[in-house]
Specification:
It contains 15 helices and 21 strands. By secondary structure, it is an alpha+beta fold. The strands form six sheets. Strands 14-18-13-17-15-16 form a six-stranded mixed sheet. Strands 8-9-10-1-11 form a five-stranded mixed sheet, with helices on one face. Strand 6 and strand 7 form a beta hairpin. The longest helix has 17 residues. It is globular and about 75 Å long. The two termini are about 40 Å apart.
């Protein structure tokens, strides 16, 4: 549940900064040779982030952005333009071999993989990397594995000399994970930052973040937090074992603490280093309009066809919203068209009707309510009348910034047409997320989500499983349905991909029958590059450029 503005720092679960603008469209990966038409040059990545964090244990970084340049994991994401995301082997020979019905997963490491000092990467290094992520001093990273591994809930990391017995390393090239329950998406979990190898004894929690030991094509040359991170080639990276990284540029420099509008202006002007640069921050509505007025700059924008979902969540356990007919009335009363105009128009997103987002395997397109984009007020009023409800009054929790307020006001006006009065409750970003995920005194909340990995599981379980209500969970509609919980459990445990996808599609439709949310848009994300930056694209998932493919025209 992170608001995604810069891919360099944050990861992929989005809560709501997504409603702001737009995402960009394609997914998959080619053999290394496919995109490596040019080698050399210095690529500049311009970011508003004040620091770029590289410790895999604390990282929420996407497999296809910053950290993926420096470290490899057991598995990774195959992301190509126009393709659905796939999980593929990275350091391992396969995406994992399940046994014991999906409770045990075994991996074998490829031959010829080495750290930047030429030391062979072993299964013990992967085990130590995962174990580090449990240390109380290393927090904030993606942590799905912590609740899945046997003994994970009480393990405190390796720094007191204790190992996690549910990770076995029978030899230097074999690693076995024992889970509490069957988990079909474990191959995706093994692509998370914590599954990067860390040489034992070299993972000091205080210093590793600035200069981790590289297993990917680049290593840290210098790192001045707040100012600049410089990566140079790791000569011990084995291109022949890597199908997703093309390692085009000779050097990559992250320019930190950049001002967003200054970055946009310099990329529009496209002179000097700007030609060899791209922005890690997506374009806000104002910047996007500036770029579109300049034909040269407009030709250098990569935009997704779709992206994270932005939605109006209804607190299904509160007042009149307990009534399905009232919730259905909101499905019809909502003016998605006015909402999208407030968010920046067609360039900001496509209309949403399903929970599983574009670019994710298993998605089936459907629209249960089939209301026009501007709503069906007549139908909404009829449903409210049949439910015996009039003079409804709801509070809408939203973020207190001009973009969100404009979007919330558009929703407010739309519902007013059906006789539903809405009072806005704007809060600063921290209070907003705290209250949305812990409190229950709101009726409606404007929310958004991008999953942490390209699976329907990550689209649905965090938002609609009853276990995710309150205590910081993202089930902000307080939706609880035991049939859906049982289906989620079944789908989660299903190892066969096509069977799992069919189950997730079933969950998607079943949840929407209960109308706990009004899907609004799949937000688009647009990124600007300089004229010498090549192989620059943004998939449907994740809606960030694939850094691992970028080359320079040199």
């Amino acid at each position: 549940m992170h608001h995604l503005r810069t891919a360099t720092v944050v990861a992929a679960t989005a809560a709501l900064a997504l409603a702001l603008t737009g995402y960009s469209g394609a997914t998959g990966t080619a053999p290394a040779s496919a995109a490596s038409s040019t080698k050399g040059g210095t690529l500049h990545i311009l970011t508003t982030a004040t620091a770029v964090h590289l410790d895999p244990a604390t990282s929420q970084n996407l497999s296809t952005t910053t950290l993926g340049l420096v470290v490899r994991r057991l598995t990774t994401w195959d992301i190509r333009p126009g393709k659905t995301a796939k999980v593929v082997p990275d350091l391992a020979t396969t995406t994992g071999t399940p046994s014991d019905g999906g409770k045990t997963w075994t991996y074998h490491l490829k031959k010829g993989i080495e750290f930047q000092d030429g030391t062979p990467i072993t299964s013990q290094d992967i085990k130590y990397g995962v174990e580090r992520s449990f240390a109380p001093t290393l927090t904030g990273g993606l942590s799905y594995h912590k609740s899945l591994l046997v003994g994970g809930s009480s393990y405190q990391g390796p720094f007191d000399g204790k190992q996690l017995d549910s990770i076995a390393t029978p030899d230097d090239r074999t690693i076995v994970f024992h889970l509490d329950a069957a988990y079909g998406d474990w191959p995706w979990i093994a692509s998370m930052p914590a599954f990067a190898p860390v040489p034992q004894g070299k993972g000091d929690p205080n210093t590793y973040d600035a200069k981790p030991v590289a297993s990917g094509p680049y290593q840290v040359q210098s790192n001045q937090q707040g100012s600049q991170l410089t990566l140079v080639r790791n000569k011990h990276w084995s291109a022949g074992t890597d199908t997703v990284r093309t390692a085009g540029p000779a050097k990559i420099v992250f320019e930190e603490s950049q001002d967003e509008s200054t970055v946009t202006q310099s990329l529009i002007a496209d002179s000097g280093d700007a030609k060899d640069s791209f922005a890690a921050t997506y374009l806000g509505a104002a910047e996007l309009n500036q770029v579109r007025q300049n034909p040269s700059a407009a030709s250098r924008v990569a935009t997704s066809k779709a992206g994270p979902i932005t939605y109006l969540a209804m607190n299904t356990q509160r007042g009149a919203l307990k009534d399905l007919q009232v919730r259905k009335a909101l499905e019809y009363a909502t003016d998605k068209r006015a909402f999208r105009i407030a968010a920046g128009g067609a360039q900001a997103g496509t209309y949403a009707s399903t929970l599983i987002t574009p670019g994710i395997a298993g998605r089936t397109s459907y629209d249960l309510y089939k209301a026009p984009a501007s709503g069906n007020v007549k139908k909404a009023k009829a449903l409210l009348k049949a439910a015996g409800q009039k003079d409804l009054h709801f509070t809408l929790l939203t973020q207190n910034d001009p973009s969100y307020l404009a979007q919330a006001q558009a929703l407010q006006q739309g519902l007013k047409r059906a006789g539903i009065a809405v009072t806005l409750k704007p809060e600063d970003v921290d209070s907003f997320y705290t209250d949305a995920t812990n409190d229950s005194s709101y009726d409606l909340v404007l929310y958004g989500w991008q999953p942490d990995f390209p699976s329907a599981n990550a689209n649905i379980q965090p938002l609609f499983a009853s276990s995710q209500i309150g205590n910081g969970g993202n089930n902000v509609s307080h939706y609880s349905n035991s049939d859906v919980d049982a289906l989620i459990t079944k789908a989660t445990a299903t190892v066969n991909r096509s069977k799992a996808n069919a189950l997730w599609a079933q969950v998607d439709r079943r949840v929407m029958q209960d109308a706990p949310i009004v899907p609004l848009t799949y937000a688009k994300q647009s990124f600007l590059r300089g004229s010498d930056v090549q192989h620059f694209f943004v998939p449907d998932f994740p809606a960030y450029p694939n850094y691992l493919k970028v080359t320079l025209a040199k």
